[in-house]
Write a structure and sequence with these properties.
Elements: E1 8-11, H1 13-26, E2 32-40, E3 43-52, H2 67-74, E4 79-86, H3 95-104, E5 110-119, E6 122-134, E7 140-147
Parallel strand pairs: 1-3, 1-7, 4-5
Antiparallel strand pairs: 2-3, 2-4, 5-6, 6-7
GO molecular function, one term: zinc ion binding
GO biological process, one term: proteolysis
Keywords: Hydrolase, Metal-binding, Metalloprotease, Protease, Zinc
């Protein structure tokens, strides 16, 4: 059972536009990147998206952050999270996502997943936001987070 966090995540309009553009640009492959911003009393504000090349051997069904891009982003003090897309499924964590999370869960508090949708006939994205939590067994998991 997932408990809804009382904290929220705000994505600036320009950053949301960049996320949607990236989602459609890389389709049918999964896109990925780093989310930058700041922590607030009530949650997080994401104000920048840094795309990172997906180097997975099967990029239509998996993402692997390019090591060079990830290393560069991981040293940014404003790093908040990871973003990736689900080209043909809902923006909910898959078993593969939770497996990948174990590689970088210690480094980020946020995890966003986007899927394609339309609003008034225009390309848009459905975005799922999650916070990263360590379970008692040491494994990382994701809990739903409100997008404001």
């Amino acid at each position: 059972m997932h408990l809804q966090s009382k904290q929220q995540c705000v994505i600036t309009p320009e950053t949301r536009r960049l996320l949607v553009t990236h989602l459609y640009r890389v389709f049918p492959e999964e896109g990925c990147g780093a989310l930058l911003g700041s922590r607030t009393e009530d949650g997080w504000i994401i104000d920048h998206f840094q795309p990172i090349r997906n180097t997975a051997s099967n990029p239509q069904h998996k993402f692997t952050l390019d090591p060079t891009g990830w290393i560069t982003s991981s040293f940014n003090p404003r790093l908040l999270g990871i973003f990736h897309t689900h080209p043909t499924s809902s923006p909910e964590p898959s078993a593969e996502d939770l497996l990948q999370l174990q590689l970088f869960g210690e480094m980020v508090p946020l995890y966003l997943i986007a899927s394609r949708t339309t609003i008034d006939g225009e390309p848009d994205a459905q975005i799922g936001a999650y916070t990263v939590h360590r379970q008692p067994n040491g494994l990382f998991t994701l809990e739903p987070l409100t997008l404001a």
